[in-house]
Q: What sequence folds into this?
């Protein structure tokens, strides 16, 4: 398991263990086929964790039958009212990610958790008629937007070489991924800021 996969598993388990309410903006966990435009069978390990929480998907349109219709720019919740928020691969698709990030901070309870993923060096991935693809995020941007939170953990996803390969046609060949990770470690490229994106775990 990669460092970023371990980070993802650890923080998602922490959220579903420590908190009672989980709002998944955009359904980025991809675990309920009926409430998402994509489903990821590799995330099935999360499903048993849903039994202990009030888990709801929020989306701005009703196309994929979310539990809540709402806009991340103006979340339909009171200040300091939500235990935890998950926002995976959403903020590059919204018109004002700075406002959206502030909205997440606004609605979280003190001590509330949020888990965010944003891309940096990543391919264009709009979905016609549903969302555009507007933004990319450097580590500096993530750190700046996270300043209002009391605790900030940032985990880069992929090193520079694996990121470069991911953007090429060779990136479709999954079984070669360990080779690029080894190359990143041997060349020191795993310690640069040229990455695919960032997982961010924040505590209000």
A:
């Amino acid at each position: 398991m990669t460092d970023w996969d371990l980070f993802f598993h650890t923080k998602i388990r922490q959220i579903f263990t420590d908190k009672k309410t989980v709002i998944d903006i955009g359904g980025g966990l991809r675990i309920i086929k009926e409430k998402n435009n994509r489903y990821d069978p590799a995330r099935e390990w999360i499903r048993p964790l849903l039994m202990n929480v009030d888990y709801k998907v929020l989306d701005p349109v009703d196309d994929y039958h979310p539990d809540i219709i709402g806009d991340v720019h103006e979340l339909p919740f009171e200040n300091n009212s939500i235990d935890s928020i998950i926002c995976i691969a959403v903020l590059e698709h919204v018109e004002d990610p700075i406002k959206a990030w502030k909205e997440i901070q606004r609605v979280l309870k003190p001590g509330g958790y949020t888990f965010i993923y944003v891309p940096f060096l990543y391919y264009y991935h709009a979905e016609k008629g549903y969302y555009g693809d507007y933004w990319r995020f450097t580590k500096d941007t993530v750190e700046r937007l996270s300043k209002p939170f009391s605790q900030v953990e940032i985990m880069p996803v992929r090193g520079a070489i694996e990121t470069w390969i991911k953007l090429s046609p060779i990136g479709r060949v999954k079984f070669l991924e360990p080779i690029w990770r080894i190359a990143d470690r041997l060349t020191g490229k795993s310690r640069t800021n040229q990455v695919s994106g960032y997982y961010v775990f924040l505590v209000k």
